[in-house]
Amino acid sequence: MQRLALYWLAVLLHIGGWAIYYSVSRSLEAIIGFSGILLLAALETLPSALSIPSSSVAASRGYRGLLIFGFVEALGLLLFAVIPWPYSSLGVLVASIGWAIAGPHTVTAVLESSSSSSKLGVVLSSGALGWSLGGFLGPLLYDATGLTGSMLVAFLMITGCYVIFLANLPEGAASPGGSRVGALETLAYSLALSPLIVAMETSFSLIMGRIASELPSLHYALVLAGTGLTSALGKVIAGVVIDRIGGTVIYRASFAAYSIWMVASSQLGGYALAAAFLTPIFPFYEIGYYTHVSRLLGERRATAAWAASYTLASLHLFTLSVLELSFVEALIISSILAFASLVVTTLVERWITRRVAPQQRY
């Protein structure tokens, strides 16, 4: 229980640091432009495929040593602040490489230490609170201290996260295990999941940018804080619900919910769009994913599949960054991708189930 309490704090620091970066970077649209925002989103996701070889190392040798790359992740965000644009985007790439190697294993540690979905939901709810805290502080820090000051705070928070995890890992962290399938199945699932990630990254980035441009800075900060609060409550509720009815139904329903939400959001603006952004779909998707997919792939492969799915998303985001798509067009395309991902992930799950013997899956 003490370890889970420390993980709660570490997750809050980790997501809080990234929330500062996201809230500040998305408010730079007037400086770097619409294409610059999409470029950052692409670089944030491009290295995510590194999580698959990282998960192979974790399965064969443990993941303790891999968490060292978390300090590279923190350093990358600091580089984003001190290097002039557009070269500062390379700092985001460095941070993303560190996250792809180390980040998924923070969730692995939580999964291997949690005995139920409700406990998992409580620990991961701190990430939503971290998002709320970082989202609120980010614009205020930027106004008060500029880009360097705000990214320094993000650097310190993420560094603190990895210090806590490295000092409090479960006993099996340095040992083989935690995987029920191989790299091929992990890659296949990540590819199937990637259309939803494209949809979420595109819609979240554009909606945040639109809200930042249409609302006063303080109101933008309050909206981001509000999303964290609704998400934190949603994760706790999702964990309790999933313990009762299972993760599969909740996980798949979240795909359809996102598809509908993206279409609806495309028709909104200003405070109405901000209200839609507060809808807590992601908590049910996240807890449902870890409960359902960990059962299918194993904890260490499930976290890797989530992370790796962002790589293909980055390639699509690079394409979107050079296309002259309107806000509405981008969200409609996102809606279609979210529904397509529901279909494809279901088919891939059946394929994996046929490939892996029942005694290996359960």
UniProtKB/TrEMBL annotation:
<feature type="transmembrane region" description="Helical">
    <location>
        <begin position="331"/>
        <end position="352"/>
    </location>
</feature>
<dbReference type="InterPro" id="IPR036259">
    <property type="entry name" value="MFS_trans_sf"/>
</dbReference>
<feature type="transmembrane region" description="Helical">
    <location>
        <begin position="220"/>
        <end position="242"/>
    </location>
</feature>
<feature type="transmembrane region" description="Helical">
    <location>
        <begin position="89"/>
        <end position="111"/>
    </location>
</feature>
<keyword id="KW-0812">Transmembrane</keyword>
<feature type="transmembrane region" description="Helical">
    <location>
        <begin position="30"/>
        <end position="50"/>
    </location>
</feature>
<feature type="transmembrane region" description="Helical">
    <location>
        <begin position="148"/>
        <end position="169"/>
    </location>
</feature>
<protein>
    <recommendedName>
        <fullName>Major facilitator superfamily MFS_1</fullName>
    </recommendedName>
</protein>
<keyword id="KW-1133">Transmembrane helix</keyword>
<feature type="transmembrane region" description="Helical">
    <location>
        <begin position="62"/>
        <end position="83"/>
    </location>
</feature>
<keyword id="KW-0472">Membrane</keyword>
<feature type="transmembrane region" description="Helical">
    <location>
        <begin position="5"/>
        <end position="24"/>
    </location>
</feature>
<feature type="transmembrane region" description="Helical">
    <location>
        <begin position="181"/>
        <end position="200"/>
    </location>
</feature>
<feature type="transmembrane region" description="Helical">
    <location>
        <begin position="123"/>
        <end position="142"/>
    </location>
</feature>
